[in-house]
Amino acid sequence: MAKKSAPVPRPAARVVPLRKGTTLEMVRLACPDATQATLIAESFGSPVIDSEGIRELHERMIVETADALGEGLGERAMQIHLQRIVGSYVGSAHGAGQFYSRAVTEARDLTAKAANDLRDEDLDGPGGFESAAQRKREFAADMGIQAHALRMAAEGAVAAYEHVVGERWKPFERPVENPGHMLDRKAAEMQMAALG
Q: pTM value?
């Protein structure tokens, strides 16, 4: 009986994992919309901001900037430039939304503690000073309004990108700096899963 030769292993294709960028959908999940921002403003006695005005201003500003740069930049250079600008708006809004979420959690926790037991640090201060829980709620409200304003700026920037470039904006996805480490971790996860 003839001995079969072992198949020659093919070199594995190198897969370069990509670091996912922040999307506008992620911003929308993290930041209050216009309805919630209005409710926050009314509940805390803050001014109601002009959401559509912020959005339209940022869209117009970026379109006008692109028009001014039009003669100096080629089509691809304009796309790259606007990709970076829009990415910074989206990233900023997402960061504000995450910060807002943490502020709400802290306010909720402190408010719940104050409602459950009367502790000295949660009681109203002397002479009209607010409680710590009230300060946390007001801080969270401020962060919510800021996150909403930055969301609207990001939405305007994304709309401007589509207007100028002619395609929908999507985040730039950069290669992971240390792909070997990522592959080692995935291999370890697969091995541990096989062990049960």
A: 0.73
